[in-house]
Write a structure and sequence with these properties.
By secondary structure, this protein is α+β, with helices and mostly antiparallel strands. It has a single domain, classed as tt1808, chain A (Alpha-Beta Complex). The chain contains four helices and twelve strands, in the order H-E-E-H-E-E-H-E-E-E-H-E-E-E-E-E. The protein has a six-stranded mixed β-sheet with strand order 3-5-7-8-9-10. A two-stranded antiparallel ribbon has the order 1-2. A two-stranded parallel sheet has the order 4-6. It is globular, with a radius of gyration of 17 Å.
Length: 209
């Protein structure tokens, strides 16, 4: 972690100057380079992206699922303070559903309808004075994004998916652990077994010929 404190705008300028293969997040004003994820992590993210895009092509072609976009959550200092956060934060979701716009050169997105995280080892590290893990901090930030309708947190060490959906009365959350349980996201046209997210991983390996 670098010692300097960056504003959100300075962090985005810093990201623009870094190689595309590097992943950075802004945590309490400090740029943090993310450790390259495990193969299972990448496979789960790819499975989720594909499942969402297959569903969206049928249900809502005006949206698409992408991996690791730069998301602008639109939270000012007061909104962050109300959530119990201090300086600036810019998490990078593993998968997001955004508006389809095939304009070249896009990197940062201001409107995300679904935000998903595949939990990695560093996500369990505390980032706030009260010991709040980074994964919990990220999900709180995502739920505060005005355009967000769904948040998913997918474990890679075991079959477990936490689902948050925004309804007329606010957010409702539940956890799915049965691989045959239905992961239903009606707003995105998705209905699939939880186990489909883990296809090809050590938890649901391919059958060898």
């Amino acid at each position: 972690m670098e010692s300097r404190v960056l504003s959100p705008a300075a962090f985005r300028a810093f990201q623009e100057a870094r190689p595309d293969e590097e992943r950075w997040e802004l945590i309490d004003g400090a740029p943090v380079m993310m450790t390259p994820p495990l193969i299972d992590h990448n496979r789960i993210a790819s499975n989720l992206e594909r499942l969402l895009n297959d569903a969206l092509e049928r249900h809502d072609p005006g949206r698409e699922a992408v991996q690791r976009p730069g998301v602008e959550l639109g939270l000012d200092a007061q909104a962050l303070a109300d959530l119990g956060f201090g300086a600036a934060y810019r998490p990078e979701p593993d998968v997001a559903v955004i508006d389809y716009d095939p304009t070249p050169g896009r990197r940062f997105i201001g409107r995300s309808h679904l935000l998903a995280e595949v939990v990695s080892g560093t996500d369990d590290e505390p980032v706030l004075a009260g010991g709040l893990p980074w994964i919990e901090a990220k999900t709180r930030l995502y739920r505060a994004h005005v355009f967000c309708e769904a948040v998913l947190v997918v474990e890679q060490r075991r079959i477990e998916v936490a689902v948050w959906l925004r309804g007329p009365d606010g957010w409702t959350g539940w956890t799915l652990r049965d691989p045959e349980a239905d992961l239903a996201l009606p707003g995105f046209g998705l209905s699939c077994p939880v186990g489909a997210l883990y296809a090809g991983t050590h938890l649901r390996p391919r059958r060898r010929a």
